[in-house]
Amino acid sequence: MPGPEYPRSSENMVLIWGAADTGKSAFVQRACYDVFPPELDPFDGEGDRKLAVVDGESRALWIFCVSNMAATGMVESFIRRSDMFVLAYSVGSDDSFFQMNRAYYLIRELRGLWADEHVPIIIIGNKCDLPSKRRALPGGRRRGYGSSSHEDVRVVSYEEGACLAEQLGCPFFETSAKENINAGGPAERDEKKVV
Ligand SMILES: Nc1nc2c(ncn2[C@@H]2O[C@H](COP(=O)(O)OP(=O)(O)OP(=O)(O)O)[C@@H](O)[C@H]2O)c(=O)[nH]1
């Protein structure tokens, strides 16, 4: 398998990071080509390009996806190089939602964000087209970390996503690569925060 491609010097690098099956590849395909293939090859190690108009200025984005299953060294290398981050979860997976915290704090740690450096991080809850039908658990409990695989129904509400994003100080969007909801805009809006 070829090694990862790298962005050109004129491009802003956007790292999309999330659990497996959150729809990262589908989101990029929708954002860059306005298509929704039913099945996609794993996207790790590949980048894609999108032109975005930011404050009236055309900018080139190089968009790169990694899942949290990727090799630690590769993830850290791309975290250090990226200009902005999109942390993705699926509204159909509690597990992917809980894993975002780890991604968020790793970015902050590696980029020294406890100091003054500002790096834009946005959060997207993909698959918002899934129907809302929360499964009842015995005793009314909520599932916890590691307890959920991906579902065909929504298990993370909009409010839960918005609340976490607010706590972390990140812009938040629910998206659907499938139904083309907010799937072309977040990177452009995020870019606005950079400049
Ligand atoms: N309902 C729905 N399904 C989606 C959406 N986006 C992606 N999917 C489906 O979710 C599955 C995973 O999509 P991928 O784009 O391969 O997910 P990924 O996060 O890149 O997965 P990895 O390569 O394993 O990291 C596929 O079956 C997609 O068709 C969406 O917006 N809505």
From TrEMBL:
Keywords: Hydrolase. Its EC number is 3.6.5.2. SUPFAM superfamilies: P-loop containing nucleoside triphosphate hydrolases. Transmembrane segments: none annotated. SMART domains: RAB, RAS. Signal peptide: none annotated. It catalyses: GTP + H2O = GDP + phosphate + H(+). It holds the Pfam family Ras. GO terms for molecular function: G protein activity; GTP binding. Belongs to the small GTPase superfamily. Ras family. This is small monomeric GTPase. It comes from Clonostachys byssicola.
